[in-house]
Amino acid sequence: MTRDEAFGMLIEMTSSASLLRHMRSVELVMAAYAEKLGEDKEVWAIAGLLHDADYEAFPDQHPAIIVEKLQALGETHIAHAIAAHYTKWNVPYISMLDKTLLACDELTGFIVACCQVRPDGIATLEPKSVIKKLKDKGFAAKVDRDEVYKGIELLGIELTEHIAFIVTVLKKNREELGL
Question: In whole angstroms, what is the distance from residue 2 CA to residue 41 CA?
């Protein structure tokens, strides 16, 4: 599957600008992690791009619809990672792709939320500010902190290092993402 094909699937099911930005943000972070870890950048980017593709159109069936479509296309590796991107779905974490998508999804969304309340957006955002906001349960209350911590545990990375990596990727793309 190419990125263009994946994007076509995405826009068939998603029109929300904020959700599209979230998926693009996760796509960029996943591509950067693939590069860092020597993995297939296109596969990892597509997993990030499509992980919530069916959320807007089929919230009660998410992620079953996009997983089904990907499996039908033979994209089983991506389908499995998307099926596993929330621990409460009890899908086993087999590959680094599975673990990295889980570790990047909630935290990337949370970091974007942190940027939105800062006068200078992401320009001066530091990991310590993100960690402080993570402790404030009233801030971005829909972000499941347990998922953030389980993700970094599975990925085997320290929280500050992971936040710094995501912030760096988002800073490089701040104009496109509106950060």
Answer: 11
